[in-house]
Amino acid sequence: MQRRHLMIAAGAALAMPAIRPASAQGKPVRFALDWALQGNHAMWVLADDKGIFRDNGLSVKIDRGFGSGDTAVKVASGAYDLGFTDISTAVKLNADNPDKRLVSIYQVFDRTAAALITLKGRGINSPKDVAGKKVGAPEGEGSRMIFPAFAKAAGVEADKIKWTSMAANLRDTMLAQGQVDAVTGFLFTTHFNLVGIGIPEDNILAWPYAENGLDLYGSAVVARADWLEKNPQIASAFVKSSILGLRALLADIPGGMAAIKKREALFDEALEARRFAMTRDRSILTPNVKQNGFGYLDMTRAETLIRVNAEAYGVSNPPSVASMFTSDFLPPVAERQV
């Protein structure tokens, strides 16, 4: 993420195709997802369908995304009020553009989805076995950039890895074809992409960073700091609605998948229900969330995330924890208990 990110002057021109236009009632909110519609996005689709946004005084326009980094830039540009993005993307962006800094107002993913992923038969049965192997990931992609921190935590000899760069859409195919021995990426994305191209599920091996020594936060709802100062009630209403939408999804996963299918004809309900189940179990309903409630912030973990990303991207002036994370817009703890 370079200072080019904020060529943010083109704000409005960066708008994404709408999934569904906002209704005429309530305060208008422009919300950008991190990617094309996937299972976990049903929490916001259900919040819309069930009138949760409306009941909380909001009229939300939900647009698809084109990657966490892209979404972060678009929120920082002012093209969107709120976005759903991997919070790690904000570390360098905030350091380079303090006047357009992003703030996490609701950590949806209590754990990052970044993982080391391989297939059986590649001679990799633990993270340490990846030393001397060919590992693939797009150059500059988050899971690759913070791999050294994961390697240190997991006891991997990182200097013995042979990295292969590729476009993101070729990563899973190259792993399946044996052009690389392993890849780094988001577990839920790569796992089900491999399933989608015919790899038997029990042939896939993965070691999520967060479960193997590098316990970082994942994707969050973010907003620009100056927007939050002007719109605190809207931010609080959106977070409250998001949690209620998540509760609705957890209670009725098939219903959530059907809601997305109405908006995206090519949406695979069965596969996405499985993707969401993995997301739920590995990143959303973590032991921390079960104990402390949705969105609970541990500032020590937040500080670790900033430090790891600052080291990975060579940031000499990392943002402070207080400038990048807040629990001010979360509903009371009683409303956030699992």
UniProtKB/TrEMBL annotation:
This protein's pathway: Cofactor biosynthesis; thiamine diphosphate biosynthesis
The Swiss-Prot or TrEMBL record annotates one GO molecular function as: metal ion binding
* Limits of the SsuA/THI5-like domain: 39-250
- GO BP terms: thiamine biosynthetic process
Q: Which reaction does it catalyse?
A: N(6)-(pyridoxal phosphate)-L-lysyl-[4-amino-5-hydroxymethyl-2-methylpyrimidine phosphate synthase] + L-histidyl-[4-amino-5-hydroxymethyl-2-methylpyrimidine phosphate synthase] + 2 Fe(3+) + 4 H2O = L-lysyl-[4-amino-5-hydroxymethyl-2-methylpyrimidine phosphate synthase] + (2S)-2-amino-5-hydroxy-4-oxopentanoyl-[4-amino-5-hydroxymethyl-2-methylpyrimidine phosphate synthase] + 4-amino-2-methyl-5-(phosphooxymethyl)pyrimidine + 3-oxopropanoate + 2 Fe(2+) + 2 H(+)
The residues forming the signal peptide are 1-24
Which keywords label this protein? Iron, Metal-binding, Pyridoxal phosphate, Signal, Thiamine biosynthesis, Transferase
Quote the Gene3D superfamilies the UniProt record gives: Periplasmic binding protein-like II
InterPro entries annotated for this entry?
Answer: NMT1/THI5 (IPR027939), SsuA/THI5 (IPR015168)
Q: What family classification does the UniProt entry report for this protein?
A: Belongs to the NMT1/THI5 family.
Give a short account of what the protein does.
Responsible for the formation of the pyrimidine heterocycle in the thiamine biosynthesis pathway. Catalyzes the formation of hydroxymethylpyrimidine phosphate (HMP-P) from histidine and pyridoxal phosphate (PLP). The protein uses PLP and the active site histidine to form HMP-P, generating an inactive enzyme. The enzyme can only undergo a single turnover, which suggests it is a suicide enzyme.
* PANTHER family, alphabetized: 4-AMINO-5-HYDROXYMETHYL-2-METHYLPYRIMIDINE PHOSPHATE SYNTHASE THI11-RELATED
Q: What is this protein called?
A: Thiamine pyrimidine synthase
* Species per Swiss-Prot/TrEMBL record: Teichococcus wenyumeiae
